[in-house]
Amino acid sequence: MKLRFDGGGSSSEAIGEYGINAAQYGDLQPRLQAARTALKQAWDDSVLGFFECPDTDPQPIMDWAAKIAPNFTDQIVIGIGGSSLGTRAVLESYAGELNGLRTHVTENVDPSTYLALLDSVDLSKTLFIVITKSGTTIETMAKFWIAYDRVLEELGEDAVATNFVGITDPKAGSLRPLSAELGFKTWSVPPNVGGRFSVLTPVGLVPLALAGYPIDELLNGAKACRDAVFATEPGQATLERCAADHYLLHQKGYAQTVMMPYADRLDALSEWFCQLWGESLGKAKNRAGEIVNVGLTPVRALGVIDQHSQVQLYAEGPRDKHVVFLQLEDFGTDVNVPGRSGFPGALSHIQNKSLSKILTAELDGTQAALTAAGRPTSRWVFSDGNPVEIGAFIFAWEYVTAVMGELFDINAFDQPGVEGGKLIAHGLLGKSGYEEHARVVEGANRNVMSIV
Ligand code: PA5
Fold first, then answer.
1. For the chain, what is the total number of helices (H) and then of strands (E)?
2. 134 Cβ below 6 A of ligand 1
3. Structural domains of the chain, with CATH
4. Is the CB of 82 within 6 Å of ligand 1?
5. Mutate to test the pocket of ligand 1, among 83, 84, 87, 108 (most ligand atoms within 8 A of CB)
6. pLDDT tens digits, one per residue of 257-310
7. Which of 322, 302, 327, 301 is CA-nearest to residue 380?
8. DSSP annotation of 234
9. Ligand 1 centroid to 199 CA: how many Å?
10. What is the pLDDT of residues 356-365, one digit of tens each?
């Protein structure tokens, strides 16, 4: 594994007064050390289960997947947020050939895409993986019931038991009792692992194993990353340095974190990151109950595409963004711009250059230009994005997020802000006892004006 972090672009050496200097980092040391102590305690007390995930034995899941997969050609993963983003990110990052089930991850409740997906598969050869930790999520449960109805109508009752798998809390929610009633298998999500930290539990591991992804290597990478943190003195780990950079930049007014991979197959990792970062750190109150309205707004960008869209803003707009680049050194494939004559002379220097070389030059150029403009940047470098590196990246950001929660003195593991909208949606859809919530919408101040 060669996953590396380079925070030099955020330092005062690189960007002068806008960057972080050694004294600021030194001053933060006691708080970084306290963060490590608190998190280690939470791990020892089994409060933060994400620390234990890398120790999961992948064999039972791999054995089960090897037994089940030959009965199907496709799997449809129904989930949302922490129950889907990680699976999609890991799967899309893979360059090798997957010899398992064709995987379709469905997240939204858009009827056109969902119906198109259901119509595109042979139901008798499709395994539905229904993932909801809480077992109560409207979007997931609605789509599960639609799929259940189709399977029942087209294939009969027996197929429900074989063509559905649930992944949910061991006790709570509606999916578990329903799966028992309908007779399909379930895997459990450990209660001490929050949704957005759950990709290394059955939430991600089961569909990934069914797809043929090497989940053992993914877990090995996460474990190596975790062990590397705890092999260093508190406050000295690379990831603590990374968290310190994000925290100190936030204190200087950099309230947005742009994650910008320069590789299409790393793009979904930034989507996964956005949920982890946004939902964990965006909080109204600190642990003392004081209003702090803290958070870092995660922003997705993709190199080089967004150089032609967003980088102008990053370079010259408000000084509120820290751009985190993701670099892939080896794409596993490449192609040169042909040296054939007749190419415009002004661009002849790109002839015989590979696309990966051009991409890297664009990345280096963009980072250097942002540095010259006094804008903080950092870079994560993958060798070839193999599963070990991806597992390490996942654990790395989970840990950095947890450290940030400590530095902000907030609970990074709840999401009270999204509950309100869910209650109102339940009320609007007619749930008994939720009428009051629905009335909030009736009273909403609208000002609709005609455009065409
Ligand atoms: O991080 C979280 O807990 C949430 O974002 C959830 O992942 C998301 O709301 C989906 O919840 P569930 O898995 O209960 O359907």
1. 17, 12
2. yes
3. 4-40+219-338+346-408 (3.40.50.10490), 51-216 (3.40.50.10490)
4. yes
5. 83
6. 999 999 999 999 999 999 999 999 999 999 999 999 999 999 999 999 999 999
7. 327
8. T
9. 11
10. 999 999 999 9
